[in-house]
Amino acid sequence: MDLGLKDKRALVMSSSRGLGLACATALVAEGAHVLLTGRSEDALKAAAADLTAKGPGKADYVVADLTDASTVETLASTAEEVLGGVDILVNNTGGPPPGRMADADLSVMAAQFDVMVMRVAEITARLLPAMRERGWGRIVTIASSGVIQPIPNLGLSNALRSALVGWSKSLANDVAADGVTVNMLLPGRIHTARVDQLDEAASKRTGKTLEETRAASRATIPAGRYGAPEEFGAVAAFLCSAPASYVTGGLIRCDGGAIKSV
């Protein structure tokens, strides 16, 4: 299938590693020009060089810290300068510290809301008018399976990412007639450094070995394994594609069947 992504221009947030990098990799493989973002210039520079060398698309990067509100304009103006505009926006942020909601520090919750919710809404609002004017755009927001089935010991993540569900669906309804699709992509246990950190935290909390923790986690997944970042990136690329033009307002799961509800 031709995804129609050759020469499309994509801004992929928090993409020096993990799920963001997986999405960027898939888009470059389809011929898109991608702007990577993140806090580590060394990691970004290496990732951009690697993706460009593999082609057929290419990657550039901009250093950005989502804790700084001024970053939104920096990202948008850099994307317009480097890419010439943005056809595809992949919203992605880091996650908050693990822990029970009953024990949550509300000051941490407020700070994480700014990064995980407000920055996503702000960068989308900044780039959306040009997409609507051109009559073509793709907005994919990466969240978590916890917005459907709350994940134990990830109280802040469950709460904050859920705020994006209503935002995304409402926005999708508002701009569907303008040729812009808006979807959320929900990872389950995709094997990234973040999942390794969560498994290590669970091991310390429960007193189990890391392999015991991972085995217990795999046992809850019908597929019997963690997902590969490449599998996740492929789903993201499809949602950004031309053939996915009638897919909007959705919560798309990439979780190996882990979510128990239909």
Automatic annotation (TrEMBL):
Name of the protein: 3-oxoacyl-[acyl-carrier protein] reductase
Family designation: Belongs to the short-chain dehydrogenases/reductases (SDR) family.
Record-linked SUPFAM superfamilies: NAD(P)-binding Rossmann-fold domains
Pfam families: adh_short_C2
Stored InterPro entries: NAD(P)-bd_dom_sf, SDR, SDR_fam
Organism: Jannaschia seohaensis
Coiled coil regions in record: none
